[in-house]
């Protein structure tokens, strides 16, 4: 065993520098609280970027981890396994979908969805129908295909020629969507709430227009629910609250509560175009991840838990309103359920990281969504005591940045 001491500095010495992590190193967590290697406590309002929906070291998930871990971890895609079959049944019962393809991340789920959409168009219409429409400031993953489809060019620049046939439109712009979606379009991919792009909910009328245009032109509508799915918005999947049903849905993040798993969900007719050997994965749908995800789905789909998400979301909005009455730092609070973005006003434009750092100093782990938005994505079952304590600490962080008022 390697017992050589490590610290935050070790990251700078041995890790590829694509991240810039916080100056402390989290060591253990329980529920919505974490402790770093120095023993300092934090309230977790970040949820591992909307991942630990049931908190850290959740007892029910730990029992599944230990039970399945003692039976079978991995078997390879030449075989199936009971946990993944049960998980597929659960997701089909809860959604519009008939079929599931399991992967290891949201990026892989989106990669599968985009490949499937192009294969469907190729089979049904021919090679000319290959256009994928996405939206500015969207985020769909870090594979080269998904980062090219995402609407943030900074992530795809410097890697050579990008895949062709990708068009980016303004989000929530109905007229632009009507003009752009046409005979060449094979798919439209959209987040019901843009997460990385600033926590911006889609206008239901906008989503309806996307559905109508896709139907009119033989294109598929893909909902990227990697961040919004599995209870985050107060519905098991966010599409349920929009009046629009997609053809393909992608999900990950909270699905495994931190164990890597993602899924692409679709209908029988569309899934039939992914024939034997057309797509694949080594680790996707492994029995250990599937068993954990199955328990997550069972717990999060409880209507009482989902009602609690909506109630906690309203509580956070009220607490942010109280902070803003004192500090006048926020221009807008938006989002759904427990995916909330607080837009800084002009006085604090570009300073989201200052608030993030101050919060960490005061014992709160948070997220940002760009330079101007504070993002909240805590556990869906965060206790009221932790919520109250977290905001008491956050108020002191606001004092640090804004001064006492």
Automatic annotation (TrEMBL):
<protein>
    <recommendedName>
        <fullName>Acetylornithine aminotransferase</fullName>
        <ecNumber>2.6.1.11</ecNumber>
    </recommendedName>
</protein>
<dbReference type="GO" id="GO:0006526">
    <property type="term" value="P:L-arginine biosynthetic process"/>
</dbReference>
<feature type="binding site">
    <location>
        <begin position="224"/>
        <end position="227"/>
    </location>
    <ligand>
        <name>pyridoxal 5'-phosphate</name>
    </ligand>
</feature>
<comment type="pathway">
    <text>Amine and polyamine biosynthesis; ectoine biosynthesis; L-ectoine from L-aspartate 4-semialdehyde: step 1/3.</text>
</comment>
<dbReference type="InterPro" id="IPR015422">
    <property type="entry name" value="PyrdxlP-dep_Trfase_small"/>
</dbReference>
<comment type="pathway">
    <text>Amino-acid biosynthesis; L-arginine biosynthesis; N(2)-acetyl-L-ornithine from L-glutamate: step 4/4.</text>
</comment>
<feature type="binding site">
    <location>
        <position position="142"/>
    </location>
    <ligand>
        <name>N(2)-acetyl-L-ornithine</name>
    </ligand>
</feature>
<keyword id="KW-0032">Aminotransferase</keyword>
<comment type="subunit">
    <text>Homodimer.</text>
</comment>
<dbReference type="GO" id="GO:0003992">
    <property type="term" value="F:N2-acetyl-L-ornithine:2-oxoglutarate 5-aminotransferase activity"/>
</dbReference>
<dbReference type="InterPro" id="IPR017652">
    <property type="entry name" value="Ac/SucOrn_transaminase_bac"/>
</dbReference>
<dbReference type="InterPro" id="IPR015421">
    <property type="entry name" value="PyrdxlP-dep_Trfase_major"/>
</dbReference>
<dbReference type="GO" id="GO:0005737">
    <property type="term" value="C:cytoplasm"/>
</dbReference>
<dbReference type="GO" id="GO:0030170">
    <property type="term" value="F:pyridoxal phosphate binding"/>
</dbReference>
<comment type="similarity">
    <text>Belongs to the class-III pyridoxal-phosphate-dependent aminotransferase family. ArgD subfamily.</text>
</comment>
<feature type="binding site">
    <location>
        <position position="282"/>
    </location>
    <ligand>
        <name>pyridoxal 5'-phosphate</name>
    </ligand>
</feature>
<feature type="binding site">
    <location>
        <begin position="106"/>
        <end position="107"/>
    </location>
    <ligand>
        <name>pyridoxal 5'-phosphate</name>
    </ligand>
</feature>
<keyword id="KW-0963">Cytoplasm</keyword>
<feature type="binding site">
    <location>
        <position position="281"/>
    </location>
    <ligand>
        <name>N(2)-acetyl-L-ornithine</name>
    </ligand>
</feature>
<keyword id="KW-0055">Arginine biosynthesis</keyword>
<dbReference type="GO" id="GO:0042802">
    <property type="term" value="F:identical protein binding"/>
</dbReference>
<dbReference type="InterPro" id="IPR004636">
    <property type="entry name" value="AcOrn/SuccOrn_fam"/>
</dbReference>
<keyword id="KW-0028">Amino-acid biosynthesis</keyword>
<dbReference type="InterPro" id="IPR015424">
    <property type="entry name" value="PyrdxlP-dep_Trfase"/>
</dbReference>
<keyword id="KW-0808">Transferase</keyword>
<dbReference type="InterPro" id="IPR050103">
    <property type="entry name" value="Class-III_PLP-dep_AT"/>
</dbReference>
<feature type="modified residue" description="N6-(pyridoxal phosphate)lysine">
    <location>
        <position position="253"/>
    </location>
</feature>
<dbReference type="InterPro" id="IPR049704">
    <property type="entry name" value="Aminotrans_3_PPA_site"/>
</dbReference>
<dbReference type="InterPro" id="IPR005814">
    <property type="entry name" value="Aminotrans_3"/>
</dbReference>
<feature type="binding site">
    <location>
        <position position="139"/>
    </location>
    <ligand>
        <name>pyridoxal 5'-phosphate</name>
    </ligand>
</feature>
<dbReference type="Pfam" id="PF00202">
    <property type="entry name" value="Aminotran_3"/>
</dbReference>
<keyword id="KW-0663">Pyridoxal phosphate</keyword>
<dbReference type="GO" id="GO:0045303">
    <property type="term" value="F:diaminobutyrate-2-oxoglutarate transaminase activity"/>
</dbReference>
